[in-house]
């Protein structure tokens, strides 16, 4: 089976900024992985921690853009997220203006693999990101932390969240694309500086650059009586 998206939710601190950001996200009972991508409008401020339904998440990658204006992207993850509607609480090292996106994934191994980062100015109006090693049963996901509200992802990428953080000058945009041996995300129609992170969401039992993960099989048996006999049904 292939990994797939379960649900995505965005949020932002608002114009006045804050020292934390809470996003309410709903995950299905089948969700096996959650990722949180954060865009911060300053390189001097970092994410000090994220909890999903009270459980601590783990940082996967971070990238600063130190050009004028500053931009920082971070990605965090947790396996087997609590199902239903729960709060994701992002804490910052200082008050800041920020935006974020939460995604939960189905049939997904933990942790995400093959993380790559890039910074740039977008001055040419378009840019290709660093290639991510993945596989045909995986999904490549990313966050573009940019000050430009007009960035347009390639047509092969699906937008999962597109969050203005405070006044439209900075945003978090998360997209995904079907995996392959090597996947390159790209964006056009933007001129502002950016920080970018891309990574592979691998299917349980194997996938991209991080190598195979032990697949978990849930086997349910049900016995039915039929004319005095017993029929065993096994679901894998």
What is the H/E order? EEEEEEEEEEEEEEEEEEEEE
Q: What characterizes the major β-sheet?
A: 5 strands, antiparallel
Strand order of the largest sheet: 1-9-3-7-6
Number of domains as seen in the coordinates: 1
Helix content: under 10%
How would you summarize what this structure contains?
This protein is mostly beta strands and 236 residues long.
Would you write up a description of this structure?
By secondary structure, this protein is mostly beta strands. The protein has one domain. 0% of the residues lie in helices and 60% in strands. The protein has strands at residues 4-12, 18-27, 31-40, 47-52, 55-56, 58-65, 71-79, 84-96, 98-106, 113-120, 126-128, 132-133, 139-146, 152-153, 158-164, 171-178, 182-183, 186-188, 194-201, 220-226, 229-235. The strands form six sheets. Strands 1-9-3-7-6 form a five-stranded antiparallel β-sheet, with no helix packed on it. It has a five-stranded antiparallel β-sheet with strand order 10-19-13-16-15, with no helix packed on it. The protein has a four-stranded antiparallel β-sheet with strand order 2-8-4-5, with no helix packed on it. It is globular and about 45 Å long. Mean pLDDT is 84; it is low at 206-236.
């Amino acid at each position: 089976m292939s990994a797939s998206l379960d649900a995505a939710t965005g949020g932002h601190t608002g114009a006045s900024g804050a020292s934390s950001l809470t996003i309410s996200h709903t995950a299905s009972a089948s969700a096996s992985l959650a990722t949180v991508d954060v865009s911060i409008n300053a390189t001097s401020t970092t994410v000090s921690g994220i909890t999903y339904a009270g459980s601590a998440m783990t940082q996967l990658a971070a990238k600063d853009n130190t050009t004028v204006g500053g931009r920082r992207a971070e990605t965090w993850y947790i396996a087997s997220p609590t199902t239903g509607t729960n709060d994701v609480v992002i804490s910052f090292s200082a008050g800041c203006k920020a935006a974020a996106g939460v995604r939960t994934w189905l049939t997904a191994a933990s942790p995400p693999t093959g993380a790559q980062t890039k910074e740039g100015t977008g001055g040419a109006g378009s840019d290709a990101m660093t290639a991510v090693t993945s596989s045909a049963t995986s999904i490549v996901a990313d966050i573009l932390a940019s000050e430009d509200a007009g960035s347009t992802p390639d047509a092969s990428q699906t937008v999962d969240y597109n969050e203005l953080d405070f006044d439209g000058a900075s945003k978090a945009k998360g997209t995904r694309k079907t995996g392959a041996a090597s996947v390159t995300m790209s964006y056009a129609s933007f001129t502002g500086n950016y920080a970018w992170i891309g990574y592979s969401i691998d299917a349980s039992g194997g996938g991209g650059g991080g190598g195979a993960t032990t697949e978990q099989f849930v086997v349910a048996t049900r016995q039915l009586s039929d004319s005095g006999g017993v029929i065993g049904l096994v679901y894998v």
